[in-house]
Amino acid sequence: MNKGDHLFLVDGSGFIFRAFHAIPALNRKSDGLPVNAVSGFCNMLWKLLRDARNTDVGVTPTHLAVIFDYSSTTFRKEIYPLYKANRSAPPEDLIPQFGLIRHATRAFNLPCIETEGFEADDIIATYARQAEAVGADVTIVSSDKDLMQLVSANVHMYDAMKDKQISIPDVIEKWGVPPEKMIDLQALTGDSTDNVPGIPGIGPKTAAQLLEEFGDLETLLERAGEIKQVKRRENIVANAELARVSRQLVELRTDVPLEMKLEDLVLEPQDGPKLIGFLKAMEFTTLTRRVAETCDCDAGAIEAAVVPVEWGDAAHGPDLDLRSVSADQPTMAQSAPGATTSNTASGKAPADLARQRAESLAGKPIDRSRYVTIRDIETLELWLAAARETGVVAFDTESTSLDPMQADLVGVSFAIQDNVLSPGSTDIRAAYVPLGHRSGVGDLLGGGHAEGQIPMAAALAAMKGLLEDPAVLKVVQNLKYDYLIMKRYGIVLQSFDDTMLMSYVLDAGKGNHGMDTLSQRWLGHTPIAFKDVTGSGKSSVTFDLVDIDRATTYAAEDADVTLRLWLVLKPRLAAEGLTRIYERLERPLVPVLAHMEERGITVDRQILSRLSGELAQKAAAAEDEVYALAGERFNIGSPKQLGDILFGRMGLPGGSKTKTGQWSTSAQVLEDLAAEGAPLPRKIVDWRQLTKLKSTYTDALPGYVHPQTKRVHTGYSLASTTTGRLSSSEPNLQNIPVRTAEGRKIRTAFISTPGHKLLSADYSQIELRVLAHVADIPQLRQAFADGIDIHAMTASEMFGVPVEGMPSEVRRRAKAINFGIIYGISAFGLANQLSIERSEAGDYIKKYFERFPGIKDYMEATKAFAREKGYVETIFGRRAHYPEIKSSNPSMRAFNERAAINAPIQGSAADIIRRAMIQIEPALAASGLAERCRMLLQVHDELIFEVEDEAVDAAMPVIVDVMENAAMPAVSMRVPLKVDARAANNWDEAH
């Protein structure tokens, strides 16, 4: 080797480490041999060699060697027997890959160097100093801080994962000391990864300050008495010998006996057939193709090499730290599209992997300056190709409205892990593709098309292949919105994950699952607020009028954050045993709900107009009666005026004031007063119901009719309740009252189109059936099995009244108790509901538990489980968290206990109908009914379909069968589920 030559020294053990943690479980198809680390290692080495031979890069090696640890037994253990004693043995999946990786190195035509009794770092140090002595330049391909002591004017390090060179200034910037003092700094701080003791309590900043003041370690130890801080002085004096031992451990040897001399490390040309033979033996198809193209070889004509597999010597390999992963060597393993994250690739329990993922990404800086604006089709194609290579891409849309049925697409953003050529890289690349931005000037509609955008049709045509490719996983936050937007533009997303739903499955009850909240919780990062980009109030603009550069920063960040959240949340599903909930109850429901929202339902404007007039008349009449009872006219809608009349002038009992000092006139307060016989509160309740029906439904629903489809498209939320129940909004169709004549009339306005019927399929008493199942109540189970009126049976059990000829009042009381028990009703609540004394209601509840002791046992067991775990589970394993169940506040604690009792019942019922919804469309398709029967709405325990008149008789049994057997095969219900189905021209008649 001569002056001017350039030696690359590759930390092979570090490459193995990163490859093993970066690539998920991968087995050779022919025999199941684990090869994930081999695959990652080969890809990293191929990239390094390709770049090394690219003269445009600016650094071209003349010599190159790959250095490995021979074993974990080195001279350092003679100095300090506990050195690296905290490390675990390599996992079984990695053991056979040690030898394969050495074969891979030789197949790349590279020296494969290791020396017994020494670590790879010592070999690297020896070669580096020898090359430096003859005037050659050295690049150490590693980011390991242990090697930074070698950095000099002629010796640099290169972090291949981050494509970053590490020179003297970089060492100083990161550690506060130059490379020659890194040994002393590490001796002071120690290293928990290698079990180097150091001086307890001394961190890098303190160590750097001490070395700046005293010069070097030995001087510091000799003059420790001069340190002003008492505790620090005493600590250093007491642990001086530990520091000296630590220095011996961290100082790299530069006198390792080497079999291969510097001149033997010349970088030879690639032997294409040799390398291809090895890659074919490993069955690495993609890399085989790349190598064949670069080396101009016919891969088909080359036979796979015979590569022996060594299973036995676990000690003969790099001494990997398999207990923990530091922040500068994170585990960013990607999962196969749609697959459950595996722990076999890392050798860790899933909980360890999940924890390490979270720790790795928490607080990891997000550099918005790196975001890219894609303004031409060529750049877009490059990004799409990169996304295909990684197999996982975060995706987000920007539009003009929160209503996906009416929003215009403005742009899309992508984020991918930067690991196509650098497996294991923790960096994320993100970009924004503007498509529909307007300039804000130039026409009457608010501006002409802004410059620097790809034509919408061309961009969508380019993206369609990727977004519909089932082999590429699309990661989205609140997927249903983006799914609907893209479907309206002719693209049906395939193969996806939703980070919002992942969070919901994992942490329902612990807070909301919006992206900003999750980012702050898991990443320690506050994303740019939407209003900061579009403005707020009267000055706000739609996103298409936002400047493209500002839009890029906002939109690309959304995709970036989404991908990071996926990396954190995905392994938690496996670690916490919730993958099946996500994959069977949540993710498959997204396209089902999207299709329902897209279909919408027809409403009759004339019926609504007529009902609005009727409600106005009834409300006016009720208003007159209120004035008559009050003895004066006042603003009924004013809580203050109403409170003053009820509790001030009239002096009604039970009044309480809010924090503002006003009397409370909530619905519950008025209901309580009405139950005690006060006529004015009852009439006010009636007036409120009438005016709410008018304003919320008969007046508002016509405004929700879509201008093109002429139908109403409600939106469903999957992640807004703790128990798993869906909610609807814009408009909310789940709160239309059905117990009043006026409420039922509103349902008559929801109609079928000509030639069709609305078919309603409603679970009968599903929550009571679930209760009978989970609490295993023999009487209830038998009654449901025999088809007996459950409320009459309960009344007969409690009050000794025969079912035949039972008074309706007796049955009504039993019904109130049956449903009240599910919601943890108190004696006070039951007394109000039945208009009886609290003592009588308490006697009813007591007697109920005496007749059905299993229910009481279930309730107590559920509360105990919730107090221990912090959550409860449905029969399918969905979790609902109640973190306040141990609250010192009695009312808060009682509320959480009631909710915890109800959640497994209501949540199980919700899970059953979710399963039914997921199964119904395939069942209809299998019966040839997919185009003739379409699911439109879900309202609590009811599904509403629009069916062709001639297909009603065929569709109804299919729907009923799916719904009644929806729990199978996951759960075999002890109680049969029953569905009542009926078809008619409007929703009310069908229900």
TrEMBL record:
Record-linked Pfam families: 5_3_exonuc, 5_3_exonuc_N, DNA_pol_A, DNA_pol_A_exo1
Keyword Membrane among UniProt keywords: no
Organism: Rhizobium glycinendophyticum
Protein name, UniProt field: DNA polymerase I
CDD domains the record matches: DNA_pol_A_pol_I_C, DNA_polA_I_Ecoli_like_exo, H3TH_53EXO, PIN_53EXO
A GO molecular-function annotation: DNA-directed DNA polymerase activity
A GO BP annotation: double-strand break repair
Exonuclease domain residues: 391-575
